[in-house]
Automatic annotation (TrEMBL), chain A:
Protein name per Swiss-Prot or TrEMBL: Urea ABC transporter permease subunit UrtB
GO molecular function: transmembrane transporter activity
Intracellular or extracellular location(s): Cell membrane
Transmembrane spans: 12-37, 57-79, 139-159, 221-247
GO cellular component: plasma membrane
Species, as recorded: Phreatobacter stygius
Signal peptide boundaries: none
Protein family: Belongs to the binding-protein-dependent transport system permease family. LivHM subfamily.
Keyword terms: Amino-acid transport, Cell membrane, Membrane, Transmembrane, Transmembrane helix, Transport
The gene coding this protein: urtB
UniProtKB/TrEMBL annotation, chain B:
Protein name in UniProt: ABC transporter substrate-binding protein
SUPFAM superfamilies in the record: Periplasmic binding protein-like I (SSF53822)
Gene3D superfamilies the UniProt entry points to: 3.40.50.2300
GO BP, one annotated term: amino acid transport
Taxonomic lineage from the root: Bacteria, Pseudomonadati, Pseudomonadota, Alphaproteobacteria, Hyphomicrobiales
InterPro entries, A to Z: AmiC_PBP1, Leu_Ile_Val-bd, Peripla_BP_I
Highest taxon listed in the record's lineage: Bacteria
Length: 289, 415
């Protein structure tokens, strides 16, 4: 029983990291239809930003979260304006362009910050562990879970309850018609992409105390993020949450019973089988077409 | 010039006479001097400067170049300069093989220093064997290889484990959890570890492999908790080492009760994870940066002066450094026209020198190196404290886990 609870909690923790990483992609891919292969590099940028704030200015991780979000969001905005806004409705070119941006970012970081592995200090107050249902859990992992859910809540509110969110939803439904009603699609797209990039940066910063920081770290995350978003259903934010935790629990349990190599394989097989029979993912939003 | 039948016949005649007399160099001027001509000895330096293993291979490249520069600054070898030809194989075995061919066939290097991963060594091996050239491999590895064309200056399993495993059993207890990255090196090391455990009354509570580059160890750590081993025997490599240590610490496990004992965690990895995550865990290797010897102090000072004060030396960069000196020793014994890879190999058999770790020797029978195993504990300042220092050097046994198989000068033999 103890082990069972422990595994459930571990699954939640793995799921929360997946959710963190996938949230930004879900916004960008789901609402703008942009397949952003540079997503992993945005995550990497966030981690490096956390490292830099700590190294240069002695800022703790929690204090630097807001500036990290801003830095990566501005970066995303520039990329959207400078490159992607010229590639509207050209998905194939967008894939290539974001891939290229990813490669450029990786090399740029390698040249400026160096190729060595870096690490980000865990906040002292969160480095202990807590007792939950009789099993000890790392406080930092609990914090990640809370942070992931909070960011999801915030994002949901932004989309459902703000004017910009409403415009975004209108554009998703029908871009031409929304524009005809005076919605500035270009501006909304820029903001959305920036927000998604900022979320990815936050994810990178938040996971960096548990993992290593290197120029290539994004590659793994982008795969995870796409897995989550595709399984959850491309346009469904709620779907992203469910699929992140389903995948987290699934890999946690399989890894415990077998090992991580088997877990990785079986989870991928499960996703492939599922989208074979349900290409739209677990959750779908109905669209006017 | 078009190749006419006459030209072809003529060159065939010349070639036939030349080789027939046994003195081709009388006929083809400088044919055998090409390998060490104009007062220069060309060697290849083949470490990845880009790609996934660049992080560590860059330091090997630096140690190699440092040794070459030092030798050249003190007059080179018999008045000849060593000229390094540096290539970047980009952490990709196929590129390794392509660049090795270029160094050996195109640049006519007499030796190549290179490689970190076993995959890249295996990729270049056929080239060195076919061309009868010489490859100097500085990394600790899984053993089970016996080539006349590779000089192995890193540790093989018996040199890292023979002392380490019984020491761990005695100090912490018999229950071992074997965790490694999923490829050949950890599997062979664990295979040997199991044999030692059997011999010394230890037991394996679990043996597990995670994918290369894996960074989520939550489930693994749960298994540590549920199986309660005395020792976590780790052969996890690369950035996974960092994630494992940091998550171990975040989970509130205590290195004093359930330490990780590693064959792969060096100063380099410790710098990447931060001293506080590494503190209390153990590593067995022939070299640590804090080792006290005049040779090591000189090496560390020279390394920092050349490459930066924040740089660390570690148990792969040290062999990268001293193997160039062994190369010098071998070439010194040869007349200029005899400087060929097979002659260098023969001259290096049995060669000894005082390396930073202690006096090392190339075993003539298997071209591996006698080394000085040490057991050390990581401290929060990012350095190690050496707890056990071998009383004498330990000769290499590349087939230690395979009774009946011995690497000899004639190749692998069964007894």
């Amino acid at each position: 029983m103890d082990q069972f609870i422990q595994q459930i909690i571990t699954g939640l923790s793995i799921g929360s990291i997946l959710l963190l990483v996938a949230l930004g992609l879900s916004i960008i891919y789901g609402s703008m239809g942009i397949i952003n292969l540079a997503h992993g590099e945005f995550v990497m940028l966030g981690a490096y930003a956390a490292w830099m704030f700590q190294q240069r200015f002695g800022l703790g991780l929690i204090e630097s979260l807001a500036p990290i979000f801003l830095v990566v969001a501005v970066f995303g905005f520039v990329i959207e304006r400078g490159v992607l806004s010229f590639l509207n409705n050209r998905p194939l070119d967008t894939i290539l362009a974001t891939w290229g941006i990813g490669v450029i970012l990786q090399q740029a970081v390698r040249l400026t910050a160096g190729g060595e592995l870096r690490y980000v200090q865990m906040p002292e107050s969160l480095s202990g562990s807590a007792e939950i249902f009789g099993t000890s859990v790392s406080l930092y992992r609990v914090f990640l879970l809370v942070a992931a859910l909070a960011l999801f809540g915030l994002t949901w509110l932004l989309i459902q309850r703000t004017a910009t969110g409403m415009k975004l939803r209108a554009i998703i439904q029908d871009r031409a018609m929304a524009s005809a009603f005076g919605v500035n699609a270009r501006r909304v797209h820029g903001l959305t992409f920036a927000y998604g990039a900022g979320l990815a940066g936050l994810a990178g910063a938040l996971v960096s105390p548990l993992k290593s920081v290197s120029p290539e770290m994004g590659t793994g995350y982008v795969v995870d993020a796409f897995m989550v978003v595709v399984l959850g259903g491309v346009q469904s934010l709620v779907g992203t949450v469910f699929s992140a935790f389903i995948l987290g629990e699934l890999s946690s349990v399989i890894a415990f019973l077998q090992n991580d190599t088997v877990a990785k394989t079986l989870v991928l097989v499960a996703i492939v089988v599922l989208i074979r029979f349900r290409p739209e993912g677990l959750f779908t939003t109905r669209l006017r077409t | 010039m078009a190749i006419t039948r006459r030209v072809l016949l003529r060159s065939a005649a010349v070639f036939g006479t030349a080789t027939g007399t046994g003195f081709p160099h009388l006929w083809f001027k400088n044919a055998d001097l090409a390998m060490a001509a104009n007062g220069e000895i060309k060697v290849g330096v083949l470490f990845s400067l880009t790609g996934t293993t660049a992080i560590i291979e860059e330091s090997l490249n630096k140690a190699t170049l440092l040794a070459i520069e030092e030798i050249n600054a003190t007059g080179g070898i018999n008045g000849m300069k060593i000229v390094p030809v540096v290539e970047d194989p980009a952490s990709d075995p196929a590129t390794f093989s392509e660049k090795a061919r270029k160094l050996v066939v195109g640049d006519k290097c007499v030796s190549v220093f290179g490689s970190y991963t076993s995959a890249s060594r295996k990729a270049v091996l056929p080239i060195f064997e076919r061309q009868n050239n010489l490859y100097w491999y500085p990394t600790l590895y899984e053993g089970r290889e016996c080539s006349k064309n590779v000089i192995y200056t890193g540790a093989v399993p018996n040199q890292q484990q023979d002392e380490f495993v019984p020491w761990l059993i005695k100090r912490f207890g018999p229950k071992f959890y074997l965790i490694g990255s999923n490829y050949i090196y950890p599997k062979e090391e664990n295979n040997y570890c199991r044999k030692l455990l059997e011999r010394h009354g230890g037991e394996v509570v679990a043996e597990e492999y995670v994918p290369l580059g894996h960074s989520e160890f939550a489930s693994v750590i749960n298994k540590f908790k549920s199986t309660q081993p005395n020792v976590i025997f780790s052969t996890v490599v690369g950035d996974s080492v960092v994630a494992l240590h940091r998550q171990y610490r975040a989970a509130g496990l205590d290195p004093a009760k359930m330490p990780m004992a590693s064959l792969t965690t060096s100063e380099n990895e410790v710098a990447a994870m931060g001293g506080e995550a590494a503190a209390g865990h153990f590593t067995s290797a022939p070299y640590f940066m804090v080792h006290k010897s005049p040779e090591n102090e000189k090496f560390v000072a020279a390394y920092k002066k050349r490459w930066g004060d924040d740089k660390v030396t570690h148990f792969v960069s040290e062999p990268s450094y001293f193997q160039v000196y062994l190369f010098r020793q071998a070439v010194q014994k040869l007349a200029q026209r005899d400087i060929t890879p097979p002659n260098i190999r023969d001259a290096v058999k049995g060669a000894e020198m005082i390396a930073p770790q202690g006096k090392v020797r190339i075993a003539p029978e298997n071209l591996h190196t006698s080394l000085w195993p040490k057991i050390a504990q990581a401290k929060s300042n990012g350095q190690f404290e050496v707890l056990v220092d071998a009383a004498q050097w330990v000769p290499p046994v590349p087939y230690a886990a395979y009774p009946g198989q011995v690497c000899t000068e004639r190749g692998l033999t069964q007894i």
